[in-house]
Structure formats: C-alpha cells, structure tokens
C-alpha cells in the first residue's frame, strides 16, 4: 500500500509539472488598455476628447427657477392670477474638430420647462410657436404648461452656419434682462443657412437665409378677431385652432360705383420665400457695432368664391392677391465701460420696419405671432400688430410700419453684485386709410364677422381694432452671484401702452361694447366708458445655476 500511494503521488506531481511546462509555452492574452478621457485645451475650459476620436466635446447646462408677481386689471372672465412660476432645465452639447478648413462645430441645446400661474411669462408666444403645451383640466387650462424646445441644433464649418440658431439680424436681444420685455428683436431659435465672411480689422459680414415662420405677424382678419374675442380673458389662448383666416374683398362694382359682391381671401401666410438677412458687424476691444437689414415676404391665398356673398347680379371676379415684401433695418452699438467698473456695458439699439414688425420687436412684451395681443390680464383693450391689412377696395396688401429704440446699461458694484437699467419705446402704425377701407364693407350683409363698424360712426371712432399704438417700458434688476455661475436676482419693470390719438372703449368697465349693437346699447344706457392707455408693474425673481 505504501508503494502504491507513493506511485500515485509521484504521478500526480509529474503530471502537474508537465502541465505547468506546457502552459508556459502558450501565448498570454494581455488585458485591454484603459483609455482615459483626455482634456482638450484647444477650445477653452470644459472640453475633453471623445475617447477614440479627435473630436472635443463640452457638456454644460442650466437649472433655473423663476417667480413673477403681476396684479391683473380685472378678476372677471378667467382673469385673476397674481403669481406665476417657471422652472427650466437646459442641456448643451458642443462638439468641435479641427480640420484643414478650420474648426468643424456642432452645437445642440435642449430646453424643457414647466410654467403655471399668470401668462405674463411669454406663455402665449410660446403656445403660438408650439413650444408650450397647456394642461387640459378645468383649473389648469391656460395656467399650467409644459415646454419642450429644440432651442439650438446647428453645424458651423468654414464660415457657414446651418440649422436652428439665433437670428443673425438680432443684436442686443435682451442680454441684461430677466423678463426680456424691452421692445426689441430677439428670435433666439429659427431655422437658417448663413455664411459669415471675416473681412479683417474687426469687420465681418453675414448673409443669412432664415425661416419666415418665426418672423411672421398674421395679416389682419376680422374673422380671427372674432375667434379671439370668443376666448374670454386669457390672451395666451386666443386664436387657437385657426385653420382659415378670411379677410373681405369686393368682387366688383356697378355703374354707380357701389360694390355688387363680396368675397373672402384666406390670408394665412404660406412658406414661399425665405427671409433674407444681411449683417455688417464691427468688433473691437471697446465694444461692437452692427447694421442689420432684412426682407420678408407677405402672401395670401385666392378669393374663396364658394363663400362669396353676392349683393346684386354679376359680382365679377378678382385675381390672386399679389404678394408684398416687407423690410427692416436695425442699428446697434455696444460699448464696454471698464473705466467705471470691470464688466460694465452699455447697449443702444434702434430698428424700423414696414411689413416686418417682428424685426423691430414692437410686440416683444405684449405677445408675438398674433394680430391682437396683451400680456395684461383683464386689459381694457388690446394692441394690434398685423404686418399687413388687405384693402377690400383694391385687393392689395398694405404694409404696417413700426419702430423701436432700446437702451440698456449693466453695472458691477463689485465682482459678485451687478445691476441693469433698461428702457425702450416703440410705435405701430397701420397704412393710411387701411382702417377706413376695412370699415367700408360693413354696409353689406355679413353675418357672424366681428368688424370695426361703419366708417365715421361713433363705434368706429372708439373701437380698438387697427388703432395706431405706442408702448414703452423701464426696469431694473439686482443680481447677486456669491459663487461662480450662480445667479440670485430680482427685477422690476413698468409697462405702459396706449393709442397714439383719440380714445378707445374700456372693455373692463363696458364689457358688452364689443360690437356696434352693444356699443349703442351702452351709449343709450349711459354706461359707456373710454380709456387712452393701460399700464402694469411686474416683479420677477430668479435663481439660476449654470454648469
């Protein structure tokens, strides 16, 4: 037994030795090397190389909370919100690669937000460009919204920019404001294709083809006014689900020169031509200067003969309404003021437009992308902003004029505490005779369309529709940044708008006077009240962290 046990142990040892020797002859598989993320210093702080590529990426973002207070002018008809809340999240991705043609860049910014309370946080504007979606409950509709916005998604290469980006026309673009309420152009997200040439000595020139949808204020339509009036109180909900926007036009005249037929043109604009923007810019250590110009097409459909209302025989026919071309110019100046305090800056800007109101930003505070708007809950009357009015006498689109001026000053009290003071003024004026021409069709039998009354009537003289208006605002802010990229601030603004001449019906104190019949009843009862302007004060607080 001892001999057998010794033999087995010896065999096992020999087998182990042979196996070890054979294993030593086999190739050894090495562990895959770990590829660490490397810092990319070519484009500034925060960039790193995407592993396995020569592309540098920066991931950044923002978290923001806002609270606003604005007293309504009326508690009736759905009004009465005093407070508003909004929380916003932002994610930025900035990818850059060096090529033989220069830097190839792709930038993406996604934003999502939740808003509730009074609609003075530009919610109506966001609704109309489909960035915000309201809750549908009884208590939530119009007071609760969820946002999702592809704010930026563009490629830059060899001087070209293509994608969703800020309009090249803009300059100041509410740089120092929380509310962003001054009257000036600020289209932060539009679709464009542009080329920028560097001319040397600080000069650059840009030619940009931009999406007209984000610069469009609807052509005036009395049917759209009626639809807006049917939605009481909350201007952010007005003109939802408008699929046709008919504007009246006379089809022909009899021997006595009287109209014998009335048709309707659908004045909802289609995307036919892009807007063309040209910019000349000058940058120096002392600041910047920019001159911008833009051309904007305004178009309409054809006369809807099936809906024509015939007065008499042989109504006649009309051809297609000819397109018109609006235009805008803007000049801006930015001056750095380090001799007052490091970081101090002054902006001055002015813009003028015909048929292109969004380029002056006259509606920036009241609400854009709509012909009739006000951000004051329970306002006594609304402003009108249509780029054009269809003249029913000659079937021509007549352009609206607007201008704005803005000044804004940023001052640092110390490295962590800064203030901004800003103000603006603007006017909107419709083409001479456009309002009177619209009143000319009221003698015909038109059922169900809100209108501005017969020309020269008392109702016509006091109605708000297509009145030339002005607006101005002033405001200031105080922002504390106790640590880098953290802002805690408060801002107060005073806003006022009114008619340039005459008076208008105060719809708060005479709510039934939205038609000629209601107006006449109020006059007979002695209850008619009029007003020349409206104003409001808003306070907004913000906590914001960038990373």
Which residue ranges are poorly predicted, with pLDDT under 50 across at least 5 consecutive positions?
1-5, 12-16, 227-239, 309-314
* Proportion in helices: 10-25%
Mean pLDDT: 86
Total number of helices:
6
Number of strands: 27
Basic shape: globular
Strand order of the largest sheet: 2-3-4-6-7-8-9-12-13-15-16-21-22-23-24-27
Task: Give a quick precis of the structure.
The chain has 547 residues and is mainly β. It is 11% helix and 44% strand.
Give a written overview of the molecule.
The chain is 11% helix and 44% strand. The chain has 547 residues and is mostly beta strands. The strands form 5 sheets. A 16-stranded antiparallel beta barrel has the order 2-3-4-6-7-8-9-12-13-15-16-21-22-23-24-27. The chain has a 3-stranded antiparallel β-sheet with strand order 10-11-14, with helices on one face. A two-stranded antiparallel ribbon has the order 17-18. β19 and β20 form a beta hairpin. It is globular and about 95 Å long. The termini are far apart.
């Amino acid at each position: 037994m001892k001999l057998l046990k010794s033999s087995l142990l010896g065999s096992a040892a020999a087998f182990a030795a042979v196996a070890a020797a054979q294993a030593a002859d086999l190739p050894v598989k090495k562990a895959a090397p770990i590829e660490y993320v490397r810092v990319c210093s070519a484009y500034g702080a925060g960039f790193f190389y995407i592993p396995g590529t020569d592309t540098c990426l920066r991931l950044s973002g923002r978290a923001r909370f806002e609270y606003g207070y604005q007293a309504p002018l009326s508690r009736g008809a759905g009004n009465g919100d005093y407070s508003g809340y909004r929380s916003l999240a932002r994610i930025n991705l900035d990818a850059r690669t060096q090529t033989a043609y220069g830097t190839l860049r792709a930038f993406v910014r996604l934003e999502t937000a939740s808003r509730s309370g009074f609609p003075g946080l530009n919610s109506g504007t966001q609704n109309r460009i489909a960035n915000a979606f309201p809750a549908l409950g009884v208590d939530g509709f119009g007071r609760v919204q969820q946002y999702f916005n592809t704010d930026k998604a563009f490629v830059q290469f060899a001087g070209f920019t293509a994608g969703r980006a800020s309009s090249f026309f803009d300059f100041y673009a509410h740089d120092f404001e929380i509310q962003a309420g001054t009257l000036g152009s600020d289209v932060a997200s539009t679709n464009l294709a542009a080329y920028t040439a560097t001319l040397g000595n600080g000069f650059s020139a840009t030619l940009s083809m931009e999406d007209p949808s984000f610069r469009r204020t609807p052509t005036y339509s009395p049917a759209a006014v009626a639809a807006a009036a049917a939605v009481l109180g909350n201007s952010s909900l007005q003109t939802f689900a408008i699929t046709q926007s008919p504007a009246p036009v006379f089809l022909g005249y009899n021997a006595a020169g009287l109209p014998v037929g009335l048709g309707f043109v659908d004045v909802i604009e289609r995307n036919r031509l892009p807007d063309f923007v040209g910019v000349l810019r000058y940058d120096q250590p002392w600041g910047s200067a920019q001159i911008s110009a833009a051309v904007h097409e305004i178009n309409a459909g054809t006369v809807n003969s099936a809906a024509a209302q015939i007065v008499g025989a042989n109504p006649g026919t009309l051809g297609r309404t000819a397109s018109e071309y609006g235009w805008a110019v803007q000049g801006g100046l930015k001056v750095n003021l380090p001799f007052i305090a490091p970081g101090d800056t002054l902006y001055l800007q002015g813009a003028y437009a015909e048929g292109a109101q969004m380029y002056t930003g006259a509606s920036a505070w009241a609400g854009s992308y709509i012909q009739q708007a006000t951000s004051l809950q329970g306002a006594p009357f609304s402003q009108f902003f249509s780029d054009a009015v269809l003249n029913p006498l000659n079937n021509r689109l007549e352009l609206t004029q607007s201008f704005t001026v803005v000044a804004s000053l940023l001052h640092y009290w110390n490295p962590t505490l800064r203030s901004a003071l800003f103000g603006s003024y603007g006017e909107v004026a419709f083409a001479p005779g456009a309002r009177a021409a619209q009143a000319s069709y009221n003698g015909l039998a038109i059922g169900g369309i809100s209108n501005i009354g017969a020309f020269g009537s008392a109702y016509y003289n006091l109605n708000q529709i297509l009145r030339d208006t002005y607006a101005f605002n002033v405001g200031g802010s105080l922002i504390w940044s106790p640590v880098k990229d953290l802002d805690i601030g408060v801002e107060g603004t005073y806003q006022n708008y009114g008619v340039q001449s005459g008076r208008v019906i105060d719809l708060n104190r005479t709510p039934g006077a939205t038609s000629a019949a209601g107006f006449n009843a109020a006059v007979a009862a002695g209850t008619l009240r009029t007003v020349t302007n409206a104003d409001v004060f808003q306070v907004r607080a913000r906590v914001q962290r960038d990373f």
